[in-house]
Amino acid sequence: MQEFCKMRLVESVVRTMRVAKVYTDNQDTITNMNFSSDGMSLITSSADDQIIIYDCEKGTQKRTINSKKYGVDLVQFCSNKSQAVHASTKENDVIRYIFLTENKYIRYFGGHTKRVVTLCMNPTDETFLSGSMDKTIRLWDLRSNNCQGLMNLAGRPVAAFDPDGLIFAAGVNSEHVKLYDLRSFDKGPFASFKPEAKSKECEWTGLKFSPDGKSILISTNGSDIKLIDSFQGNALQTLNGHLNTKQLPLEASFSPDSQFIISGSTDGRIHIWNTENGQKVCSLNGDHKNPVQCVQFSPRHMMMASACQMMCLWLPSSDEDED
């Protein structure tokens, strides 16, 4: 695999991305994926109650864990990639902390009373955020069952840590973005933005800081992806041209250098935009037969992953023809 420091990600390279490996291990939709921080592993959760871990260097499946009793969603590697946290989809709304290599649960985090819809690990320590349809965001530490902080909100939350793990953003009711200092979040947000008038057609389904920390990406269940300045909240770009005819929570993600944004679509294609000017770079066909809900760039290597019911790993090719 080419590392980013050895091969610069430019538009001509992005256009050559092609599917290198297809995995058909799932019987239902893959609802979440997450690369390990070193880019060597990828973990997925799916509606068929499976957690699957892939070796990105060898291109092989490493392990499958079934969670038939509690279901699984929003799985995230911890800083130790032999461990992960995930939300439940059955029985209750407990968040579960699992030792992947032993298939044993280490700890349970209870408190949410409705479905957990956002889960994100702090990139620098053992804390993580969860947000639920119960209109709360909770702060947790992997070393304690006890909730470290609770925020009551006006609507459905989405949340994300900044790259330094010192600030987190909360998107509230598909209308406001509020920024909190992790060390004093109980004092309330230190900044609040209202990027634009609330859309009746769609709701926010995801929030991500760019790797350089300068912007925030807002995913929706509509046909627009919003990019705002993380310091002032100014609207930078509205990205569209991809299909979302089923109001799905299509993931949008940054490239590691923050230069590109990637999203799936309901027609199975992968769409990539230039972050700076908002222009579409390309639309790639990976032979997905169903809507692509999950898409991410590897944080370290010249690789992308996309998933519907099947999962694809993408690598650049020598063919520069754009689809």
Structure description:
With 323 residues, the chain is mostly beta strands. Helix content is 1%, strand content 46%. The protein is built from one helix and 28 strands. The strands form seven sheets. The chain has a four-stranded antiparallel beta sheet, with no helix packed on it. A four-stranded antiparallel beta sheet has the order 2-3-4-5, with no helix packed on it. The longest helix is centred in the first third of the chain and has 4 residues, at 11-14.
Describe this protein with a few key phrases.
single chain; 323 residues; mainly beta; 4-stranded antiparallel beta sheet
Brief overview:
The chain has 323 residues and is mainly beta. 1% of the residues lie in helices and 46% in strands.
List the topology elements:
Elements: H1 11-14, E1 17-23, E2 30-35, E3 41-46, E4 50-55, E5 60-66, E6 73-77, E7 83-87, E8 95-99, E9 104-109, E10 116-121, E11 127-132, E12 136-141, E13 149-152, E14 157-161, E15 167-172, E16 176-181, E17 191-193, E18 204-209, E19 215-220, E20 225-229, E21 235-239, E22 252-254, E23 260-263, E24 269-274, E25 280-285, E26 294-297, E27 304-307, E28 311-316
Antiparallel strand pairs: 1-28, 2-3, 3-4, 4-5, 6-7, 7-8, 8-9, 10-11, 11-12, 12-13, 14-15, 15-16, 16-17, 18-19, 19-20, 20-21, 22-23, 23-24, 24-25, 26-27, 27-28
